[in-house]
Amino acid sequence: MSCASLNELAREMGGFVNGDEVDIDLLSCARLPYRFVESHYSHLLPCSAVFILEVSEDTLRRRMEERGGYSEGGKIEENLETQRADIYFQEALERLPATRIFRINAEGKDPDAVAGTILSIASRLAIT
Fold first, then answer.
1. Which of 114, 123, 110, 120 is nearest to 53 (CA)?
2. Does some domain include residue 99?
3. Which domain covers residue 39, as residue numbers?
4. Does residue 42 form part of some domain?
């Protein structure tokens, strides 16, 4: 599956402003040569479908703690609240119909299995 990290692409394009804030307009105008991109803000870019990967709060908290760098400013709690409030779905709904937004339960699933689910849905939608 051809998937790129938007954070890496933003870094390469000079798309970070004020430290860690991403220039969504810059990324939106770029012609990205990828079928899939991933990040917590990818749903804000022009796209034909959004896949929201969901895990339990405990798993999300553990992953963020293991990754590190989230202790200052309450970033972990902010991410948990975003999940609780369904922010990603609501933001995606401003750009796409609900029939193009997919929630995928990734709890305890192998990344290849999750990718397979995404590819299956994308194939049915004829996303190229």
1. 114
2. no
3. 1-46
4. yes
Whether the CB-CB separation of 69 and 46 falls below 8 Å is answered with no
Domain count of the chain?
A: 1
Alpha helix positions (H), 1-128 = 6-13, 24-29, 57-67, 75-84, 87-93, 111-125
Is 37 part of a structural domain of the chain? yes
* Sequence-separated (6 or more) residues with CB below 8 Å from residue 14: 26
Q: How confident is the model at residue 119 (pLDDT cuts 50, 70, 90)?
A: very high
pLDDT tens for each residue of 63-81: 988 988 676 668 889 889 9
Q: How far is CA 89 from CA 46, 101, 105, in A?
A: 15, 7, 14
**CB atoms near residue 51 (< 10 Å):** 22
Q: Is residue 43 predicted with pLDDT exceeding 80? A: yes
The count of other CB atoms within 10 Å of the CB of residue 22 is 20
Nearest CA among 50, 42, 52 for reference residue 8: 42
